[in-house]
Design brief:
The chain is an alpha+beta fold and 164 residues long. The chain has one domain. The strands form three sheets. The chain has a two-stranded antiparallel ribbon with strand order 1-2. A two-stranded antiparallel ribbon has the order 3-4. The chain has a two-stranded antiparallel ribbon with strand order 5-6. The longest helix has 14 residues. The radius of gyration is 17 Å and the shape is globular.
């Protein structure tokens, strides 16, 4: 039996879907200006959160400035030395998909920042979203949104990676 929702919630959700496009885009993006291939603030990835913690602790955790690893020109922070070492051994396994940009936005063909608390691990991969609402919309069709994001992400123009 479907859960009852308020008329206001239904109206806001419908309006958002209409504004954002009711379905994922099919291999088209609105982004024309190149972006950094990895989302970062002041050279720090994932807003300072530990990417391994999403897998090992099952929740977002802030990293510590003293426990860091450089990868692809950015500083990645970790809650523990063990998490740092796991990331250093297999960064592609733990790094967020779509360069750490909002998975829902990428599935719709545009770029948005992320909230580290709006996340999911699906088939061993980390996906982040802009906020709780974008995450809820992404969850409506998780497999379809992932597939659309995988088609769209390579089409987004990216700046060259600087550093290692």
């Amino acid at each position: 039996m479907p859960l009852p929702i308020s008329r206001r919630t239904a109206t806001v959700t419908l309006a958002a879907l209409l504004l954002l496009g009711g379905c994922a885009t099919d291999g088209s993006v609105s982004q024309t200006k190149p972006i950094p291939p990895l989302n970062a603030e002041n050279g720090v990835a994932l807003k300072g959160h530990d990417p391994v913690a999403y897998f090992s602790a099952g929740k977002p955790m802030s990293g510590q400035a003293g426990i860091e690893h450089r990868w692809r020109g950015l500083t990645w922070r970790f809650a523990s030395v063990a998490n740092r070492d796991a990331f250093a051994a297999e960064p592609e396994r733990y790094a967020p998909q779509f360069g750490g940009y909002c998975a829902f936005a990428i599935s719709r063909g545009y770029i948005a920042d992320i909230d580290p608390a709006a996340w999911a691990v699906e088939r061993g991969k980390l996906y982040l979203n802009n906020n709780a609402f974008a995450h809820q919309l992404w969850e409506v069709d998780r497999p379809g949104n992932i597939a659309a994001g995988e088609r769209n992400w390579p089409l987004v123009p990216k700046l060259p990676v600087v550093g290692g």
